[in-house]
Specification:
Chain lengths: 109, 64
Amino acid sequence: MVIIDGIVTLFLAGGLFFTFVGSIGLLRFPDFYTRLHATGKCDTLGAGLIILGLILYHLVHYSESFLVAAKLSFLMLFIFIANPTATHAIMKAAYQTGLVPWKLGDERK
Amino acid sequence: MGPGVFNRVAAVNVIGTKTIALLVLIGYYTERPYFFDIALLYAMLNFIGTLVFARYLERGELWS
């Protein structure tokens, strides 16, 4: 039990770390494309790690109800598929509209 | 968040993803399992909304 709780804590702390790093990247990067580069991956991994830790916690502590674990698994799978797709779609829309990427020496946009 | 409409759409997407994680955590903290259904619905709405907004910004119209 204690070992499993430690692993769950490790997953939650990892998710919190990645979410935090993604937020810092969203606030600090100079351009739209670089901002999405930071958040599109860090947010997906952060939310996925948090939900994975909670699935593990649920399977150990409330092992009689599988429905909640199934729902959370579907949620994690959906986030892992949908979030990069949404990032790609909005980035492609920006590129087709003609938003020029940032180069070294430009102003922050 | 940022000048321009694309930065705002990206910020809405990021806030939506963080809201999903927060909803799941609140559901565990208060021991109410129906929060997970709301989180699922919120994930789908976030994805569809971002996709529709990207399509609208790319083409200038939705139905063509």
